[in-house]
Amino acid sequence: MAVTVVTMEVGNDGVAVISISNPPLNVLTVAIIAVMKEKFSEATRRSDVKAIVLTGKGGRFSGGFDISAFQKVHKSDCKKPVVAAVEGLALGGGLELAMGCHARIAAPKTQLGLPELTLGVIPGLGGTQRLPRLVGVSKAVEMLLFSKPIMSEEGKFQGLIDDIASSEELLRASRLWALGIVERRKPWVRSLHRTDKIGSLSEAQGLLRNAREQAKRTAPNMPQHLACLDVVEEGILHGGYAGLLKEATVAKELVLSNTSKALAHLFFAQRTTAKVPNITDVGLKPRHVKKVAIIGGGIMGSGIATALILSNISVFLKEINSEYLLKGMKTIEANIQGLVTRGKVTQDKGRKALSMLKGVSDYSEFKDVDMVIEAVIEDVPLKQKIFTELEKVCSSCCILATNTSTIDLNVIGEKTNSQARIIGAHFFSPAHVMPLLEIVRTEKTSPQVILDLLTVGKIIKKVPIVVGNCTGFAVNRTFFPYMQGPHLLVNLGVDLFRIDRVIRNFGLPIGPFQLQDLGGYRLGLAAGKEFANAFPDRTFRSPLTELLLKNGRNGKSNGKGFYIYEKGSRPKPDPSVLPIIEESRQLMNIMPGGKPISVTDKEILEMLLFPAVNEACLVLDEGVVARASDLDVASVLGMSFPSYRGGIMFWADTVGSNHIYTSLKRWSEIYGSFFKPSRFLEERAVKGMPLSAPATSSPKSNSKL
Asked: Where, by residue number, does the polypeptide cross the bilayer (predicted)?
């Protein structure tokens, strides 16, 4: 086990090198900071020390502060010159530490940034004051608000870095610079005292005013953005030390805020998803997956192919005919070109990625592939036919994966003898952009196959979550009530555009009806039938989608749905859909006394989200996921649940299990079994337990995980 240490070595040149070692990222803890302060005090006292170089061991300066250290750090200014020798990365508190030094020498390609706002807090060690003084207000605001890191080369151009030296020469160059300050050949710069990069007061305030307006538009429920700008402005108006005092106060308040707690919870939860009991902890070694075949070149297949080739994995794309194959290949090319145009990948990387792609019309290339991913339409007989063919043409160690979003894997593989290597690889659309990968295991899937797909997920920069096999798996199953609940409310007389507005105000990017427009109605109908067959006691069947299709509407794909879609403009509510909704209401005839129900926005929100929480309880109770935090990550990355609310289960616990249970029970008595609370939810409510608390006994169902 790695030992956390801070060491100091004094060279013959009179330079003390203080080194931080806390592998793998040299994260700063309260203990490290305390020892570091002792080393600085010792170096300041010693007569044989002329100057100090601060660095990190293992090729990294520091990845930032342990979240728990925010409130316990105090600032001081050393009376001897201090130079930061920065390599690998200096993020968060690590960069703040470097900015507190009198100069910064960096190795090439070193990452520099202040990502604290993504955790609901602001920099707490002077970053809000020193960064604007080193790079100017405009660049500082960009780096702070967007948590956008820069490389050391840009850092030198901006003034954040004083010089760049190779990794081999970094310490030597830093020592020489420190001695140069002692000998007055180099400037002794206290970044907190600088004002030359701030510009005029009116210009700085204008930049901050514009940044505030942008923050209100893009992050309306994130208090840390406006708080950060206020602290920056305090330092500009009243000086760096006044800014530090305000920064310390505000940072402490934000650490204790609900937003920070939610974002910190997600931060750690996301790092836990890849730890799978009896898979990643039993000594198995992942096999190399270098060649992958994909069956189906539609939106999903082409997106998956794009993600793989961008990570240097060769792809054979198979389609049923040359026309469809050409279309799939062109879609992949367009995906790559779009990333190049937006500056996400370089032209060279785009060309290299496309060279890893080959289109095929038969199975001849499949004999040598390490994995096949089936990504055809949600048609059970078709998928069964494909898997029986794959069993014959692929090697016995080839992983057989399906991208199905709802269908039980046992049904897909029931006509094969290869259940041990059949696994779900459920990507979310667009697959080369969306970060979540649901890895679906059956009771027969081998641990080796699960580990191999986990490894592929990491290679292609996805967040993998291993889930058990059932209709809809974890994400789509948890949220199927969220997609059906709006239809229930609309048929009870609630305005559909109000429903979407309530959900957007809560923090999701779009409401459920606009989401259905994006997905297409036929896909929604197919998924709805799967859920109705699997969970007939708690599904709501509405004729509305079929009426829309009958009326020639299919959402965004043909420009007509609940909203009007015109090129170059935002979707607009379509009033001509209202007669179709009225027809659905007449057919359903569920409005009490024939009149629309009267509900508040809060009730609408709860009637949509509480059934999803209830289903999440069942998913947990049945062992479909290993832990509640996996559902939180999945809800944020797969369904765009607002990250600052911590995910569906974290949010539910802030609401309280008792309120959720009593609300669902009341609605079930009025509106039917769609709202019926689960036994798991009832037990937690009665005991006053958090919904996310680990189960005291093993899951009741057929051990999914």
From this structure: 15-36, 292-317
Q: Tell me how far apart the alpha carbons of residues 114 and 135 are, in angstroms, rounded to a whole number.
A: 13
Tell me which residue of 348, 369, 351 sits closest to 360, measured CA to CA. Answer: 369
Catalytic residue among 38, 87, 116, 169, which? 116
333 is catalytic: no
Per-residue pLDDT at 703 exceeds 50: no
**C-alpha span between 546 and 548 (Å, rounded):** 5
* Range scoring the smallest mean pLDDT among 27-41, 339-353, 483-497: 27-41
Inter-CA distances, 72 with 64, 125, 128, 436, Å: 14, 10, 17, 35
Q: What is the DSSP letter of 407?
A: S
Distance CA 131, CA 126 (A): 8
Edge to edge, the sheet with strand 314-318 lists: 357-360, 314-318, 291-295, 371-374, 399-402, 422-427, 436-441, 463-468
The 10s digit of each residue's pLDDT in 563-600 is 999 888 899 999 999 999 999 999 999 999 999 999 99
Catalytic residue among 9, 87, 96, 169: 96
Reduced to 3 states, what is the DSSP secondary structure of residue 615?
helix
CA distances from 608 to 286, 618, 662 (A): 41, 17, 15
The whole-number pLDDT of residue 33 equals 87
Q: What is the pTM of this model?
A: 0.88
Q: Which band of pLDDT confidence, cut at 50, 70 and 90, is reported for residue 705?
A: low
Do you find a cis peptide bond into 447, omega within 30 degrees of 0?
no
Distance (Å, whole) CA 71 – CA 124? 8
Task: Write the DSSP symbol of residue 211.
Answer: H
What pLDDT does 526 receive? 86
User: Residue 281 class from Cβ within 10 Å (0-12 exposed, 13-18 middle, 19+ buried)?
Assistant: exposed
Are 62 and 100 contacting, i.e. CB atoms less than 8 angstroms apart?
Answer: no
Residue 583 is among the residues annotated as catalytic for this protein = no
What does the alpha-carbon distance between residue 521 and residue 548 come to, in Å, rounded to a whole number? Answer: 8
Please state, in angstroms and rounded to a whole number, the distance separating the CA atoms of residues 497 and 105: 56
Q: Cα dihedral sign for 586, 590, 591, 593?
A: positive
Angle in degrees, 0-180, between the axes of helices 601-621 and 475-491, rounded to the nearest 10: 150
